[in-house]
Amino acid sequence: MIRRLVALVLILALAAGLFVALWPQALDLQRQYPVTQLVSFRAIAGGVALIAMVVVIVLGLVVRPLRSITASFAVLLLVFAAVSGGIQGARGLGSTDFTTRTPTDVTVLSWNTLGGAPGPEAIAALALEVGADIVSLPETRQETGVAVAEAMRVGGRPMWVHTLAYDQVSSARSTTLLISPNLGDYAVALGDDGTTDKRTTAVLPSVVATPVSGEGPTIVAAHPVAPVTDHMDTWRSGLDYLAGVCSSGNVIMAGDFNSTLDHMAGLGKRGGALGVCRDAATATANGAVGTWPTDLPPLLSTPIDHVMASRQWMPTGFRVVTDHDDAGSDHRPIVAQLSRTGA
User: Regarding the domain delimited by 106-340, which CATH topology (the fold level of the hierarchy) does it fall under?
Assistant: First the structure.
């Protein structure tokens, strides 16, 4: 009797743990340590569950008295792996199809450059290759951004450069945003001291550029801090800030969000993933293709880099750039094509 009770408790404990790892948003745990970290790598979690399933099956075959509990464990682990795979499949395992670009479409490139590690020439070459109108470069200093813009100008695609730096000690505390003059004149709000050091997301800056004329989208190069143990509250407040920026109006937002769609659950409204902004990757069947780290294959890494846009824009193409994994950054670049909806 006691053995059966212990077995039941263990089975229920495993079921509860797997449920939290599978869908933490049901209990509002998606932004709580350590669940945040656990749900970041769904594909790996599913693979580990399959391996664990094999182990418990073998254990049950070897140790006969454990067959009942190991069989229950195996079923739970199999269900977890299958549902995890289903969620990944529903979000999209990759589609690089782009519709034919129209004159009013906007192409967005985002790349956390790890301090400009790929070099201005490589960044500019990719931006020119994809025909970027907006380039979001987290962890990129102003001088690198200027060099990228100069190379793009030589390549026939001039860009305005906007950088927000919280200090010059670490390149991670700089974010640079390049915007094509074809989109109009943009300005970044000034801080109290008259510089562009206006605090946005804490620890790491996000550049918020608004059209001078008042016409056109607000453009954001996003970079909230990562959800490490010491910065969980700051990470949450960063996501809240970005959701607030995209709470209404015309917005295009791109960058390293240090968050997957699971982490953003509860921060969207009216169908948006974050505020009213929709995730371009998920809208184009690419939501499960990972961008960090480049040491892992795309379908095993985590999709924390995003292009998001409000309802004035429809994603008509998206891809995670997988042929720059040896360029020096630990993030993969992402490219999105957005078409005006007239909304």
Answer: Deoxyribonuclease I; Chain A (3.60.10)
